[in-house]
Structures are given as structure tokens and as C-alpha cells.
Amino acid sequence: AYFCADRGAVSARRLGIVPQMIVGDFDSIDPDDLAYFESAGSELRRFPERKDMTDAELALGIIIDAGFDRVEIFGWRGGRTDHMLGNIALLERFSGLAEVELISPDERVFLIRSSCIIRDKEGATVSFIALPAEVRISLGGFSYPLDNAVLNRGSSLCISNVITAKRAQIDVSGPVIAVIREVIS
């Protein structure tokens, strides 16, 4: 199923996708696009412009409330640093409710709370960013393996590591944001 947050519907239309629902205050979507999707059967969920959540957060809440346990978010960078950082923060906000992944043409961003295995990504560059002040991290199957190392918030210790094995193992003592830069042929 496809859902869109406000202007995301413009990209969906370009791709020929008719979303099940469009969520937002509709301040950044053309009325012609809204009319197109409404006539194509998309449900429109309108919220006021003055609200305490972004359109993306509202949409993600609706998707998870509908029972989806895996959500892939495209167009999450939004062309604005504040929205990009806010969308990264949503990974932690919705952790435990659903597996949420931010996807762009060359990267995947997701949250790891305890352990994770990445398969068949040899050569991919991976970075890890601690959310709490300090996290313990162990990495196996990487160019720079770690064994229960301390990763402090704001540290660049785990930036730009490379997967060297078919099965890369990550173990952490607390939440970290993982960024995988895909191998582009």
C-alpha cells in the first residue's frame, strides 16, 4: 500500500502511483494534483497548517495505527535540513511500533536497538551514530571490526566503515542510527 505526506503525492503522480491515502495540510501540493488523486480514489486526510506534528509524522502515525509493521519512507530528505533531521528523529519516535526505514536512491537509514545482521552487502559503506550519550558497539564482518567499543554521541568513530563479509553483525547496547551507503555499479 502507498501513503503520501502532502507534497509526496506530486512524486507519486510522476511515478504513476495512486496512493491509498494522502495526509497533510496540503500547503505544498497543487489543487490539480489533489483533484486528480481524489478522482483516482485516494483518501485525503486534511490537517490544519498550524499543528504540532509534521505531515510525515502524522502520516507515519496513521500508517502504524492501520497495522503496518514495516514502513519504507521515500523522499524523506524533503529538500530542507530541518525536515530531514526531523524525519531521522522519527526513527526513534516510532521504534518498537514498526520497522521504519528511510530510503533514498543511494542510502538506507534505520535504527538499531540491540543487534542486526546485514546480509549480502559486501563493499557497502556503513556509518553508525549513537543516540544516547554513550553506546557500546561490536562490529563483525567490517573493515574496522569493534569489540564492545564505546561510541559517544557526536563521535565520528563509526563513520564510513565498510562491510567485508556476506554476513555483517552489529551489536549495540542502546539505540544507534545506521546509514548504509549502497554500492553503486
Q: How would you sum up this structure, described in words?
A:
The structure is a single chain. With 185 residues, the chain is α+β, with helices and mostly antiparallel strands. The chain has four helices and 13 strands. The chain has helices spanning 8-14, 31-40, 55-65, 81-93; strands at residues 3-5, 21-24, 43-46, 70-74, 99-103, 107-112, 115-119, 125-130, 134-140, 146-152, 161-162, 167-172, 176-181. Helix 1 (8-14) links the parallel strand 1 and strand 2 (21-24). The radius of gyration is 18 Å and the shape is elongated.
User: What overall geometry do the principal axes of the alpha carbons give?
Assistant: elongated
Rg: 18 Å
Query: Helical residue percent?
Result: 10-25%
Mean pLDDT: 94
Classify the oligomer. single chain
Total count of strands: 13
- Name the strands of the widest sheet in spatial order: 4-5-6-13-8-11
- Structural class based on helices, strands and sheet pairing: alpha+beta
Number of helices: 4
Largest sheet: 6 strands, mixed
Output the helix-strand order.
Answer: EHEHEHEHEEEEEEEEE
Poorly predicted runs are none
Could you tell me how far the N terminus lies from the C terminus, measured between alpha carbons in angstroms? 29 Å
The fraction of residues assigned to DSSP E strands is: 35-45%
